[in-house]
Predict the 3D structure of the following.
Amino acid sequence: MVKNYKIIGISGSPRNKGTHYMVKTVLETTSSDYELINLKEKNIKPCMACGGCYKTHKCAVKDDMREISRKLEKADAIVLGSPTYFANVTGIMKNFIDRCLPLYLSEKLKNKRVALVSVGNFGKGEVRYLDGFDVEKAIKDPVKRRRLGKTIRRCLNIMKFFCVYHMEMKVIGSVIAINGKPESTRNQLIRLGEKLVK
Ligand SMILES: Cc1cc2nc3c(=O)[nH]c(=O)nc-3n(C[C@H](O)[C@H](O)[C@H](O)COP(=O)(O)O)c2cc1C
């Protein structure tokens, strides 16, 4: 167990329900000094694409993202969680991701450890979004339509892509909860928390 770890959890849900439970369970299991940030309680404006951060590596927008960025920079590890909304992350999570552009440019989160969680209401046979998969065709086919999507997996992969490809963080692991039942993943969440501080 790594000593004195500082971990920041980010929940991208507008509710204190599934995602909140999942992120909190991972954080608690680490037995570390942690803070859970609920994006819904924060004032995070959308990225203005002003381009200022390309020169300064700082964001020109004065809102809660300043403090969150500072906390992320200081963190040893991060837990990122979002509910699945239309096979994507929530709007507040995407706003947060976009506002990480200065952190991306300054490579401030590079090599940080990250755990990912995602929850959705859909079950096992949910829609599949694949590269080259003809969605328009598939939704007209009643059989394929039912299989049209690993929407929760896609939500997770959006966060994973951001963490691995852009931020160059180390994804330690991830947990997906289907059928809107995050409690059923408790053991996986505990293992994820333990792995995060190993
Ligand atoms: C606008 C909206 C879109 C949604 N889209 C999906 C979806 O594509 N796939 C899915 O499995 N669940 C979808 N859901 C269900 C939520 O992901 C589910 O209720 C989840 O448990 C919410 O997480 P929370 O409890 O952390 O708020 C959607 C819910 C809303 C409100």
